[in-house]
Amino acid sequence: MGPKYAPNLRSRLAPLVLFLQTGFIVIYALYVEFEPNAFTYGNTSSKLYAEFQDVNVMVVAGFGFLTTFLVRYGFSGSALHLLVTVIAIQWSIILNGFESWLQSRRIRIDLKSLVLAEICTASALISMSTVIGKTNPVQLILIAILEVSGFILNGWLLQTVLEVRPLNCAMQLHTFGAFFGLMLTWAMYRKGSETPFEKEKVDRKTGLFSMFGTLFLWMFWPSFNSILVEHGERKLRIILSTYLALAVSAVAAAAVSVFTSPRGKINLDHIQKCSIAGGVAIGVSMSVVNLPWVAMTIGLAAGVISTLALRYLKHHMLLAFECHDTCGVLSVHGLPGLLGWLAHLILQINYMDDLTTAIRFAVFHICTLLITLSLSMSMGLITGDMFKWNFWKPPQDRECFDDQVFWEFPDLAEKKRKGKERRTPYALKPFMSL
C-alpha cells in the first residue's frame, strides 16, 4: 500500500500546494493591501473581530470535527479539512476582490473580507463532505477551488441580474454547496457502493469527536447568520431567531430519531447532523422573520425534515439514483436550505398588500433558486466528470475511508516489521542481516 500511494502524493500534492501558495503570494504582493484604518477604535472592523472568531471556530473546528465520524478516517477528516480551508480562503479573498481590482487595480482587505471568504469556503466544505473518504487530497483541493469559484460567480449573477442583496446571496451557500456536492458524488459514483465500504463505519470514539463539531457549530451559528448585518435591532433579532430555531431543531431531531428507531432509541448520527438544520433554514429566511414563534416553527420543520431524510432518504438516494452522499449533505444542508427559501417566499408575500408586487417578488425569488440550482448542479456535474479520470489516481475501493493511504503511522510500521521478524525462520536471520 505504501509504495503505491506515497509517490502519488509526493509527485502531485506537494507540487500542487506549493504552486498554488506561490501563486497566491505573487498575487497578494502585486495587488493586495490592507484597508487603511480598518482596525481603528470605533471602526466596524474592530467590532467585527469577536464575531469573526466565532465564524472561524465554526469553519475550522466545527466542520473539521464533524467529519471525523469515520472510524479510520479521523486524520484525513480533520487535517485535510484544515489544508483545504486555508487554500480556499486565500482564493476566495482574491475572487471577492476582483471587482475592486477592475476599478483601481488594487484589492483592499479587512476583517469583512476574511468573513466573506470563510462563508464561501463553508460552501466548499459542504460540497466536499459528499465525497470525503473516496477522494485523494489533490482532488479535494481542486474541488474546493472550483466550488468557491462557482459560488462567487453565483453571487455575482444574483446581484447583477436580479439585484439580490449580498446577505441573501451569501446565505445561498447551503443550497449551492449541497447540490454541487450531490451532482459531484453522482458523477463520481463507484460501482458496488450499494453495500457499505469495508471501512465506512463509526465507533464510539469517532462519534464523540464528531459530536464536538456539532457543538461548535451549534454554539456559534447565531454569529454566522448575523455577522454580515450591521449592529442594531435587526442584528439582535437575527441572533435570537437563529438561537430559537437551533434549539427547536435539536429537540425535533431527538424526537424524530426516537420515533423512527425500531428499538425506540436515539441515533447519535441524527443528533450530530440534524440539530443544526434549524440554523441552516433560518439563515436563508432570517431577513423576513419578525416573530419568535415563526423562527421556532421553521426550526421544528427543519429538524423533522432533516432527520426523516437522513433516516430514509440517504439510503434511497444511493439505491435509486446512485448518489453516495458520505455525510448526508442533502438532509443537513440541501433540504433545510430549500425549506428556508420557501419560508422566505411565503413570509415575504404575506407582508405585501399589493398583488402585483407579490407576484413580481415571487418570480424573482423563484429565479434566484433556479439560477443557484442550475449553476451549482452543472458545475458539480462537470467537476465530477473531470475527476472520474484515472489520471487523478483516486484511492481504490479497499483503500477508501482509510488514513493509511495518505498518512504516516510509525507504530503500525514497527508492528509490521516485528511481525515479519517473528515469521522469519531462525536459520535465515544471519543471512538477512548481511
Verbal overview:
The protein has 434 residues and is mostly helical. It has one domain (2-37, 49-405): Ammonium transporter AmtB like domains (Ammonium transporter fold). Helix content is 73%, strand content 1%. The protein contains 17 helices and 2 strands. It has helices at residues 2-31, 44-66, 74-96, 98-104, 111-128, 137-161, 166-170, 173-187, 204-226, 233-260, 268-274, 277-285, 292-321, 329-350, 355-386, 410-423, 429-432, and strands at residues 32-34, 107-109. It has a two-stranded parallel ribbon. Helix 1 (2-31) runs parallel beside helix 3, helix 5 packs parallel to helix 8 (173-187) and helix 9 (204-226) runs antiparallel to helix 10 (233-260). The longest helix has 32 residues, at 355-386. It is globular and about 65 Å long.
Structural class: mainly alpha
Q: Roughly how many Å apart are the termini?
A: 27 Å
Assembly of the depicted chains: single chain
- In CATH terms, what is the fold-level topology? Ammonium transporter fold
Number of strands: 2
Shape: globular
Per CATH, which architecture? Orthogonal Bundle
Reported for the largest beta sheet, the result is: 2 strands, parallel
Short note summarizing the structure:
Helix content is about 75%, strand content about 0%. With about 425 residues, the chain is mainly α.
Sequence-ordered SSE layout with sheet pairings:
Blueprint: H1 2-31, E1 32-34, H2 44-66, H3 74-96, H4 98-104, E2 107-109, H5 111-128, H6 137-161, H7 166-170, H8 173-187, H9 204-226, H10 233-260, H11 268-274, H12 277-285, H13 292-321, H14 329-350, H15 355-386, H16 410-423, H17 429-432
Parallel strand pairs: 1-2
